[in-house]
Amino acid sequence: MPATPNNVPEPSRTDPALIRNFCIIAHIDHGKSTLADRMLQLTGVVEQRQMRAQYLDRMDIERERGITIKSQAVRLPWAPTHDKGNTHILNMIDTPGHVDFTYEVSRSLAACEGTILLVDAAQGIEAQTLANLYLAMENDLTIIPVLNKIDLPAAQPEKFAEELANLVGCEPDDVLKVSAKTGLGVEALLDKVVAEIPAPVGVKDAPARAMIFDSVYDSYRGVVTYVRVIDGQLNKRERIRMMSTGATHELLEIGTNSPEMLAADGLGVGEVGYLITGVKDVRQSKVGDTVTSQAKGATEALGGYKDPKPMVFSGLYPLDGSDYPELREALDKLQLNDAALVYEPETSAALGFGFRVGFLGLLHLDVIRERLEREFGLDLIATAPNVVYRVVMEDGSEHVVTNPSEFPEGKINEVYEPVVRATILAPTEFIGSIMELCQTRRGTLLGMDYLSEDRVEIRYTLPLAEIVFDFFDQLKSKTRGYASLDYEPTGEQTSSLVKVDILLHGDKVDAFSAITHKDAAYAYGVRLVAKLRELIPRQAFEVPIQAAIGSRVIARETIRAIRKDVLAKCYGGDISRKRKLLEKQKEGKKRMKMVGSVEVPQEAFIAVLSSDDSAGSAKGKK
């Protein structure tokens, strides 16, 4: 087989029996990206002089924070020790490890036949490792358990190999031990991938069907679509059809990632690669769609992916109102690259035009906001994050509330809030403090299992609203950083929730409204009115700031009026003249109070609404 200059076999028409599609799943910081680096070096697709740490983490944010946000697919040639005569093609996908990017992981798993389950030999199994393992089992993937970082002084490979073996259902001796940093054991791992992961199955002569598992927008080449071919083959310059939209395009370029783009004549059964049609409209390439040939194309689309459900909502508004069209375009392009992003336009009396955006979690919100600011040069205000509530009125009507300003007035029968099933893994010494934290957050204990004599798995049902702010920070501080958290939505429950409004001079300010539990409403009101009193400048008249539930005021602060000294010109003389001047001033203040309006400065909105406190807790998730 002729080799390209990059030491990668010509991708066109590779025999499916020689292809292996797999991904790496693990918790944050267990060494996925470092293991991917060693694989790139061992297979020779990246030359030594071009090599850098975390090679597949392309975004600045990923490199700065040391986390993977986007899955990256790469094609690796490998001649295994037991079959030196044949060069196999390994399509490897490096996946994110954080709970907020689980959707990214689930899409990667659907494009693979096997997975490497990577666990840190010094830390052991974490909550997200379990979540990703169950995802892989649901997809019926071959699982290869691997312990990483065995060169660390704190590593306990024997102990954690037994834990892993019990989870996966194999012998402790079957768990591979590697060091991604030094490269120890990585060759044996690649051999095991070839030996144990099945080759892709597909019908070579059937009409072409390829699943879109990712897309990205390139300002020069338009939409770049990443696909996994299931049946048939796609060829350069043929016309293709997107089965969900019915749109047809000409394939200008087709090829593979090795790890840079490498053009080819076509892609066959089981191959993973990219398509470029030159289309600039980002709505034409939907993740989960099926690509087929226009002539003699397939009639039945592939299963696709489950649409992700946003867990946390936040309003994004441009600081400068004229940037609104740029924000819309930026969100369109980001949605192409991040299929879990959901948004719709909304307006606020205080902030103008913006978007209500749905995220999978706080870190997801933080990363998207940072990407919008960096990649598209936008200055944004993000309102405090909140979750989706369902309100049932006494007359039987229902309202779905994604924004506190949508909370209905009138007689409410029940309010439903989303709940999650949280899994916490921690050393046994912290059981008491973890249970205390969960109880204060309205949690219900579901059960507890000892994974080993010093590690415990605790399961709780918790309201999502209690998790999205600082729960993770509190958990880390109470367990000295040893606990790990994973959660999944399980439905909803009725709760005593109320809407707290903030009134300035008697007028409601919609941007400051919040939905909180009845027991926490007073504390929220007191905190916010005190903060606003410091931030809003003094007016020529007295301004009351009130927090209210319905018509009942629960907290109040007053901004004192600026007083002009009208008696400055009076020296000596009769007291009645001074009294007359003071009465005149009093009448003027009264009239001004009736017609005056309070302008809230932009800085006050940014200080109160910006989710810096919550973003801080998201940053703590690293």
From TrEMBL:
<dbReference type="InterPro" id="IPR004161">
    <property type="entry name" value="EFTu-like_2"/>
</dbReference>
<feature type="domain" description="Tr-type G">
    <location>
        <begin position="17"/>
        <end position="201"/>
    </location>
</feature>
<keyword id="KW-0648">Protein biosynthesis</keyword>
<comment type="function">
    <text>Required for accurate and efficient protein synthesis under certain stress conditions. May act as a fidelity factor of the translation reaction, by catalyzing a one-codon backward translocation of tRNAs on improperly translocated ribosomes. Back-translocation proceeds from a post-translocation (POST) complex to a pre-translocation (PRE) complex, thus giving elongation factor G a second chance to translocate the tRNAs correctly. Binds to ribosomes in a GTP-dependent manner.</text>
</comment>
<comment type="similarity">
    <text>Belongs to the TRAFAC class translation factor GTPase superfamily. Classic translation factor GTPase family. LepA subfamily.</text>
</comment>
<dbReference type="Pfam" id="PF00679">
    <property type="entry name" value="EFG_C"/>
</dbReference>
<dbReference type="InterPro" id="IPR000640">
    <property type="entry name" value="EFG_V-like"/>
</dbReference>
<dbReference type="Pfam" id="PF06421">
    <property type="entry name" value="LepA_C"/>
</dbReference>
<dbReference type="InterPro" id="IPR035654">
    <property type="entry name" value="LepA_IV"/>
</dbReference>
<dbReference type="GO" id="GO:0003746">
    <property type="term" value="F:translation elongation factor activity"/>
</dbReference>
<dbReference type="Pfam" id="PF00009">
    <property type="entry name" value="GTP_EFTU"/>
</dbReference>
<dbReference type="InterPro" id="IPR038363">
    <property type="entry name" value="LepA_C_sf"/>
</dbReference>
<dbReference type="GO" id="GO:0043022">
    <property type="term" value="F:ribosome binding"/>
</dbReference>
<dbReference type="InterPro" id="IPR035647">
    <property type="entry name" value="EFG_III/V"/>
</dbReference>
<keyword id="KW-0378">Hydrolase</keyword>
<dbReference type="InterPro" id="IPR031157">
    <property type="entry name" value="G_TR_CS"/>
</dbReference>
<keyword id="KW-0251">Elongation factor</keyword>
<dbReference type="GO" id="GO:0005525">
    <property type="term" value="F:GTP binding"/>
</dbReference>
<dbReference type="GO" id="GO:0045727">
    <property type="term" value="P:positive regulation of translation"/>
</dbReference>
<dbReference type="GO" id="GO:0003924">
    <property type="term" value="F:GTPase activity"/>
</dbReference>
<keyword id="KW-1003">Cell membrane</keyword>
<keyword id="KW-0547">Nucleotide-binding</keyword>
<protein>
    <recommendedName>
        <fullName>Elongation factor 4</fullName>
        <ecNumber>3.6.5.n1</ecNumber>
    </recommendedName>
</protein>
<dbReference type="InterPro" id="IPR000795">
    <property type="entry name" value="T_Tr_GTP-bd_dom"/>
</dbReference>
<dbReference type="GO" id="GO:0005886">
    <property type="term" value="C:plasma membrane"/>
</dbReference>
<feature type="binding site">
    <location>
        <begin position="29"/>
        <end position="34"/>
    </location>
    <ligand>
        <name>GTP</name>
    </ligand>
</feature>
<dbReference type="InterPro" id="IPR006297">
    <property type="entry name" value="EF-4"/>
</dbReference>
<dbReference type="Pfam" id="PF03144">
    <property type="entry name" value="GTP_EFTU_D2"/>
</dbReference>
<comment type="similarity">
    <text>Belongs to the GTP-binding elongation factor family. LepA subfamily.</text>
</comment>
<dbReference type="InterPro" id="IPR005225">
    <property type="entry name" value="Small_GTP-bd"/>
</dbReference>
<dbReference type="InterPro" id="IPR013842">
    <property type="entry name" value="LepA_CTD"/>
</dbReference>
<keyword id="KW-0472">Membrane</keyword>
<dbReference type="InterPro" id="IPR009000">
    <property type="entry name" value="Transl_B-barrel_sf"/>
</dbReference>
<feature type="binding site">
    <location>
        <begin position="148"/>
        <end position="151"/>
    </location>
    <ligand>
        <name>GTP</name>
    </ligand>
</feature>
<keyword id="KW-0342">GTP-binding</keyword>
<dbReference type="InterPro" id="IPR027417">
    <property type="entry name" value="P-loop_NTPase"/>
</dbReference>
